[in-house]
Every structure is written in C-alpha cells, then in structure tokens.
Design goal:
This protein is globular. The relative contact order is 0.18. It is of the alpha/beta class. The chain is built from four helices and five strands, in the order ββββαβααα. The longest helix is centred in the middle third of the chain and has 17 residues. The protein has a five-stranded mixed β-sheet with strand order 1-2-5-3-4, with helices on one face.
Length: about 170
C-alpha cells in the first residue's frame, strides 16, 4: 500500500473485507489429497464451508480481512503464502523457496496432527503444485509423479509453466 499512497489495489487488497472471486467458476472445488487423507485441496469457496475436522488452512491466494482466519480456525493456524499465479519470474521472486516453504507449512501442520485445507482460487495451478510437493515428500514420488496423482482428484489441475518448471527443479 505504501507504493499506492496508502490506498488498496483495484481489487481492494490488502485492506478490503473480502476478495471477490465470484467470476471464477471452479472456486468451489474440493478434494482429498491422494497421499494424505488429512489434507484437503480446494478453491477459495472451501473457506466458508470447511470439511469436517479441518483445523488449519494454508492459503495461496489473496484474501480479505474477513476471510482470515477461516471460520473455526485459530489465526495462528491460518497461514497465508504469497504465491502469484503468473509465469513472469519478476512476479514470484524466489519461487522455489516459496513453494518449498508452502509444502513445509503443510507438513508442519500435519506433524502437529492437524487436518489442513490447502487452497488457492480454483485449485488449478498453485494448489496442485504445492500438493504435489507435499505428496512427493510423503509418498516417495517425484513431484511430477505426485502431480499426476493430484490431477486424478483435481481433474482441472494445470499448473502454469513457471510452476511446472519449479516442480522439475525441485524434483
């Protein structure tokens, strides 16, 4: 906001109450991770109707003030990761680190015994990428193999070229 003279961006972020993703048709998708039954993969709409048992959230998209923390989740258990769904490297500096950090956050919450919702807007690019890294770690698969498993439960999964390249590097 400093760069904008204290004013939010055109979408109201970061000071708006809610990010409006209503124009995205697949924002209500929800599926269980194929390698970890205590990780749910979803679109942003899952925040308003969490699956039973979810006690932690890892968000990979921008959210408004009233969307964090998700209802029923402690603020300390709702982690926001700034990962932009763009292929321009300047938009996601340190992409490999951010992806690794996101997968590590999911693993740390799981190690605490929490059931986790991992989400972005539509669970098509960012969520499948981080889910593949988590799956690769726990299922002795490469990230690319794990992504194929993720696509079986999220049929619209199609990470952008930058995220796919990062999965290759991190494999």
């Amino acid at each position: 906001m400093t760069a904008r003279g204290g004013k939010p961006g055109s979408a109201g972020w970061p000071s708006g109450d809610k990010m409006d993703y209503s124009h995205f048709k697949e924002s209500n998708v929800l599926a269980q991770h194929p390698h970890d039954e205590h990780v749910w993969l979803g679109g942003v709409d899952a925040l308003t109707n969490l699956p039973d048992g979810v006690g932690a959230v890892v968000s990979l998209c921008r959210l408004g003030k009233t969307q964090v923390p998700a209802p029923g989740v402690a603020a300390s258990d709702h982690i926001e990761i700034w990962l932009i769904n763009e292929t321009d490297p300047a938009k996601n500096l340190n992409l490999d680190f951010v992806l690794t950090d996101a997968a590590t956050a999911v693993a740390a919450l799981r190690d605490e015994g929490r059931t986790v919702l991992l989400h972005c807007v539509q669970a098509q690019s960012r969520t499948p990428t981080v889910a593949a890294l988590h799956g690769a770690r726990i299922a002795d698969r490469t990230p690319t193999e794990a992504l194929a498993d993720i696509a079986a439960v999220l049929p619209h999964a199609h990470p952008n070229a930058a995220l796919l390249a990062a999965l290759e590097r991190l494999g």
